[in-house]
Amino acid sequence: MADGVRDILRPQERRRTVVLPRWRARYRLTPWWGRVLVIWLLSRVLTSAMVLTLARVQGPNPWTGAHPSYVDYANIWDGRWYNIVAVAGYPSVLPVTPDGHIAENAWAFMPGYPAVVRLIMFATGLQWNSVAVFVSLAFSLATALVFYRLMRRVLPGETAMFAVVLFCVAPLSPILQFGYAESMHLFFLTVALYLLLERRYVLLFPVITVMALTRPTGLAFALALVLHVGYRWFTRHTDPYPPGERMLSAGVAVFSALMGLAWPAVAWAVTGQPGAYTDTELAWRAPYIGYQELVPFSAWFQGGVWWLGMPLGILAVIALVLAFGMFLFTPAVKRLGIDLRAWVVSYAIYLLAVFFPQSSTFRLLMPLFPLLGAVAAPRSRIYRVVVVLVSIAAQWGWLLICWGVDGADWTPP
């Protein structure tokens, strides 16, 4: 009998005496924010190494001389437009091309990010290039931290942390440390989505204000709020929807729509031209399809035809829309919850309505980043290692194709 008791207890004793590897024990004792910080730091070191490698072989270009420093190289392309906004503001008279069309100008770049950089420049006396990189890095870390909290609302802790890994090593993550507004915008977008899930509608007003003046997403977020309000109304019998919350949620939806129209209205007021903002945006697609009027939901089909011809271009866009719609109903995406899916749908509709597909479209897809929670769902170690390695390789590919300048470049980031 005593031997039988010992035989029963031995496995339990062995389980109690299992010693975890030191690194795993430390990992378990590290708070969530410490884990996110380590992930973010390692990813930035890796990405910085790739950027510096590419900068060493970069020749003279419209923005820098040959072999630029990191901060100089991180502020080419649209970074120079944000710099212009910070130091010179916006033109009251729109520039025109020789044939009378509105030319590319600063009104396409919203004031939120350059205003923050300008404020720090004033406080520190430092120059644009270094401050812009610092601001982007700071907001990228803040986004990673809030993104974990957002994912933790809908996913288990381990999966949420891997979603943060995917965010930090995503193919376009280098732009999170360049002189672009993406880091700042993603931070306020992540905060807005978190507040939406928490149903803290009052706090959404100031967050949406800054978000909508950093990147043009006010209208898309308004649609997401309309879907949120509709869902809460139809489920009010099982999920109480008090009158106060109804008024606040509807009010913030209207406010977001107004903020989505605010910047075009400001451009109109300053320049005296009603289409100042939209005509400026259209100037960037003119090299592809010429100067045309903005017709909602036409640009993707125009782009499809430009890239692939008829009828393949039209069929490709239709197939892309159908495939994306089917993806939204996969189990992994459905686990993200109704509100995050509402945002993804709303922003995708916004992109389909107003943007022309070209190399910058990859950057414009970044606000769909809650979908990383679905990509992070499989728990296979092999799958996760492969996804991370593919993402890192895609970073290098994006830097080569879109960021590096070869003298006759038509693939802007």
UniProtKB/TrEMBL annotation:
One GO term (biological process): GPI anchor biosynthetic process
Pathway(s) per entry: Glycolipid biosynthesis; glycosylphosphatidylinositol-anchor biosynthesis
A molecular function GO annotation: alpha-1,6-mannosyltransferase activity
GO CC annotation: mannosyltransferase complex; membrane
Bilayer-crossing regions: 32-55, 128-148, 160-181, 201-227, 248-270, 305-328, 340-356, 385-406
Coiled coil regions in record: none
Record InterPro entries: PIG-V/Gpi18
Swiss-Prot/TrEMBL keywords: Endoplasmic reticulum, Glycosyltransferase, GPI-anchor biosynthesis, Membrane, Transferase, Transmembrane, Transmembrane helix
Record bears the keyword Transmembrane: yes
Membrane topology per record: Multi-pass membrane protein
Pfam families linked: Mannosyl_trans2
Major localization class: endoplasmic reticulum
Protein name: Glycosyltransferase RgtA/B/C/D-like domain-containing protein
Record organism: Cryobacterium tepidiphilum
Compartments in which it is found: Endoplasmic reticulum membrane
